[in-house]
Write a structure and sequence with these properties.
Layout (H helix, E strand, L loop, with lengths): L5 H8 L7 H12 L7 H14 L3 E5 L5 H9 L4 E6 L2 H14 L5 E5 L2 H10 L6 E2 L1
Parallel strand pairs: 1-2, 2-3
Antiparallel strand pairs: 3-4
Helix pairs in contact: 3-4
Length: about 130
């Protein structure tokens, strides 16, 4: 369900400029391969929310190829982002994209089931979750 009239969304998307060449390439690849990432209007909304809320830590469930986490890290450099992905192929693509964007020190990708991973993160333990 779209919250914006499709004609309005199309008009607004005409003003869209990506946050750097690498993120633009990741978005294009995701759109071509039907990989779920945030829409351009959600990206703009997140940008406003990050600037107003100034979070120190963000938890994202469902990394895909790390587009949204990377966007948030670049938009608000004062936060750490933990993101969880169950699909191994997506997890590996996310790590590759983080390397290309030089964001591995601030965005931590966990590979596994979100329910179990969140329990471990909440416990604050060093455990057997695969993190890179």
């Amino acid at each position: 369900m779209n919250i914006i009239n499709p004609l309005v969304a199309e008009y607004l998307n005409g003003f869209y400029t990506p946050d750097g060449a690498i993120l633009a390439e990741i978005r294009t690849r995701a759109e071509e391969q039907y990989i779920p990432i945030i829409t351009k209007d959600v990206e703009r909304l997140l940008s406003v929310l990050l600037l107003s809320l100034k979070p120190e830590h963000i938890l994202e469930i469902g990394t895909a190829i790390v587009y949204s986490a990377a966007f948030m890290a670049r938009s608000w450099p004062d936060c750490r982002i933990d993101t969880i992905e169950i699909n191994h192929k997506s997890y590996l693509a996310a790590l590759e994209n983080l390397d290309r964007l030089e964001l591995r020190s601030r965005v931590h990708v966990y590979h596994g089931d979100a329910t179990e991973t969140m329990k471990q993160l909440a416990a604050g333990s060093d455990y057997e979750i695969e993190e890179h």
